[in-house]
Design goal:
alpha/beta, six-stranded antiparallel β-barrel, binds pyridoxal-5'-phosphate
C-alpha cells in the first residue's frame, strides 16, 4: 500500500543542521530535542541519524516517548517532564534519566533511591522548574545531578529577558553541585558564546526551523511534503472553488486537487496563501483548504491526475503565509503521510 501523500525527510540535512549547531555551540556538546515524535518527523528516525553523527544527549517530554525509543539504546536520553508516581517504575528501570522539575519530584526520586538525574531551574519563564525558594530550602542536597538546566522564554527575540535569565541561571547554579550546565535551545545557540555553557538542546533548527536571522542560510530544510493530484479540472471564469466559495475564477482557470488538507497539518491558514512547486515555479492555493483536499491553480502547466507536487514548506515562509508557528507546522504533520 502507498498513500497519496508523502513526507520526504532529508537525513543529510538533519545531520548537517546538527553539525552547524554543534559548531555554533563552541566547546559545549550539542544535544537534540526529539520530543513530539521528533517534531513530527519521526523520533527514531532523527535519533538514529544524530546518534550515528555523534550526538550523545537526547530529550523527550514523557516516559511513553522514552520507552518507544528504548530499542535504539541511545547513549543519553532525558525525560523533560520529570517523574510522577505513575512513572517511577519505568524511570527506575533506567529507560532514561529524569529532569526533575519540582520539589515533589525531587523528594519522590530521593525516596525511591533513584540515581543520577537532571534538574530544571526556573529562571523567569514560570513554566517548569525549581525556583530560588526551593534551592534555599536545600531540596537538592544529596542529589547526584548530571545536567543542571534552565530554559529561555524569549531567545527568538532581542529581549533583555535573555541576559536576565542567563544571569539568574548563573547565580542559581553557583550553589548547586552538577556535572554540566545547559541553557540554550535552537534560538539560544544563536545568541552567542555566553549561552551554550556545557550542553545545548536544539530542537526546531535541527528540523529546518529558523527562529533567528543568524541561522538563515545555515539551517537547511529537512521536511518536504508531497501530495498527489487526484483530479485536474477546468474552472470557467466566474465559477467558484471550495467550501464557502471564497475564490472565484477571474478568468478560465485549470485547477489541480491535491490529496492534502488540514487533517494532515496543512492548516486552513494556507487557504489562498500557500503554494506548491512544479519545475521550480510556485503555484498558488486557491480557495479554502479542506480537511483532506487542497486546490491549486495549474493553468498552462503540464500537470495531470496522478502527478506529485511539492508543497512549499520552507518553514519561515510557510509560517508567515499560514499564521502558524514553525513548531506547529512541523508537529502538526499528521499520520497519513508515507514518511520516506
Ligand atoms: C523543546 C525544548 C527544547 C528545544 O527547543 P527549540 O526551541 O525547539 O530548539 C530545549 N529545551 C527544552 C527544555 C525544551 O522543552
Amino acid at each position: 500500500m502507498n498513500a497519496p501523500l508523502r513526507l520526504r525527510r532529508d537525513a543529510d540535512a538533519l545531520v548537517a543542521n546538527w553539525r552547524a549547531l554543534a559548531r555554533m555551540s563552541g566547546r559545549a556538546a550539542c544535544g537534540a530535542a526529539i520530543k513530539a515524535d521528533g517534531y513530527g518527523l519521526g523520533a527514531a528516525w532523527a535519533a538514529a541519524a544524530l546518534a550515528a553523527a555523534g550526538c550523545r544527549d537526547f530529550f523527550v517530554a514523557t516516559w511513553t516517548e522514552a520507552v518507544a525509543l528504548a530499542p535504539l539504546g541511545l547513549p543519553g536520553l532525558a525525560v523533560l517532564h520529570g517523574v510522577r508516581d505513575e512513572d517511577l517504575d519505568v524511570a527506575l528501570s533506567g529507560a532514561a534519566t529524569p529532569v526533575l522539575n519540582t520539589a515533589m519530584q525531587v523528594a519522590r526520586w530521593k525516596a525511591a533511591g533513584g540515581g543520577a538525574c537532571h534538574v530544571m531551574l526556573d529562571t523567569g519563564m514560570n513554566r517548569l522548574g525549581l525556583g530560588e525558594g526551593d534551592l534555599a530550602s536545600g531540596v537538592l542536597d544529596g542529589l547526584t545531578i548530571d545536567v543542571l538546566m534552565s530554559h529561555l522564554a524569549s531567545a527568538d527575540e532581542d529581549s533583555p529577558k535573555n541576559s536576565d535569565q542567563r544571569g539568574r541561571f548563573v547565580a542559581m547554579a553557583e550553589g548547586v553541585a552538577a556535572s554540566r550546565l545547559s541553557l540554550a535551545n535552537s534560538a539560544g545557540i544563536a545568541l552567542g558564546a555566553d549561552y551554550p555553557f556545557d550542553l545545548t538542546r536544539p530542537g526546531l533548527a535541527l528540523y529546518g526551523g529558523t527562529p533567528r536571522p543568524e541561522l538563515a542560510g545555515i539551517i537547511a530544510q529537512v521536511a518536504f511534503p508531497q501530495a498527489q493530484v487526484l483530479q485536474r479540472r477546468h474552472v470557467p471564469a466566474g465559477e467558484t472553488v471550495g467550501y464557502n466559495a471564497t475564490w472565484t475564477a477571474p478568468a478560465d482557470t485549470d485547477v489541480a486537487i491535491l490529496n492534502i488538507g488540514y487533517a494532515d497539518g496543512y492548516w486552513r491558514g494556507f487557504s489562498g496563501r500557500g503554494q506548491a512547486f512544479h519545475d521550480g515555479e510556485a503555484l498558488p492555493v486557491v480557495g479554502r483548504v479542506s480537511m483532506d483536499l487542497t486546490a491549486i491553480d495549474v493553468t498552462g502547466r503540464a500537470i495531470a491526475e496522478g502527478d506529485w507536487l511539492d508543497i512549499d514548506y520552507d518553514l519561515p515562509r510557510a509560517a508567515a503565509a499560514s499564521g502558524m508557528s514553525q513548531y506547529e507546522l512541523l508537529t502538526g504533520l499528521g499520520g497519513r503521510f508515507d514518511r520516506t
